[in-house]
Amino acid sequence: MIGSTARKLARSISRGPATSRAARTPSRAALSLCRWANEIQLSVPELLEVCDVVTSARPMNLLVFGVGNDSTFWRCLNAGGRTVFLEDNEEWMRLVKKRDPGVDARLVTYKTQIEDWRAGLLDTEIPDLDLPSDVRAQKWDGVIVDAPAGWAPGQPGRMKSIREAARLGRTGGHVFVHDCDREVERAYCDRYLRRERLAREIGRLRHYVL
Ligand SMILES: C[S@@+](CC[C@H](N)C(=O)[O-])C[C@H]1O[C@@H](n2cnc3c(N)ncnc32)[C@H](O)[C@@H]1O
Known about the structure:
Bound molecules: S-adenosylmethionine
Largest sheet: 7 strands, mixed
Shape: globular
């Protein structure tokens, strides 16, 4: 009990400096500390793969599907650039924005159910995701797909976010899709992002260059 309270306190004290340091210079050690302080789900090698691209191209236009414990890190990493987040869980979005008002997050509705993923693959056109016009108008240098939820029945699944990532990224832009250990993510990546554009696969993260 005391151990977990002390860990929580240590995390909250180190969160700000650890995030700033890792965003400035994302070394393995800095990312390791930042990941621990923020309870980020991506592994250090997965974070490094994204950081390599962002640090060599920043400031950039970066679109992130999903807000989470990593949102502050992504927006700080892309300092001076434009970082926009798309989130379908309103309550969760409000919580993340309260923690970090600098997070530019927009609410979206997927209208899909993960159970329908096979049928969606057969359709020639699945309906577009309703996006804010400024998001649709931008050609994005980088897109990170880590949402919506897709780990249990009844959840929306990432069919639309993967498809939209392929459309919204600019030619030569980078798309990162997390949780590619799952069948749905792999199938939609193969269909819309295509194998020939897969640059690297690190752990559960696929990196495509469009
Ligand atoms: C897999 S999570 C992304 C996690 C993020 N990479 C991180 O490190 O925190 C993707 C989606 O799950 C949902 N989610 C994640 N954590 C949640 C929470 N604590 N409460 C509600 N929804 C959550 C949100 O809708 C979010 O867009």
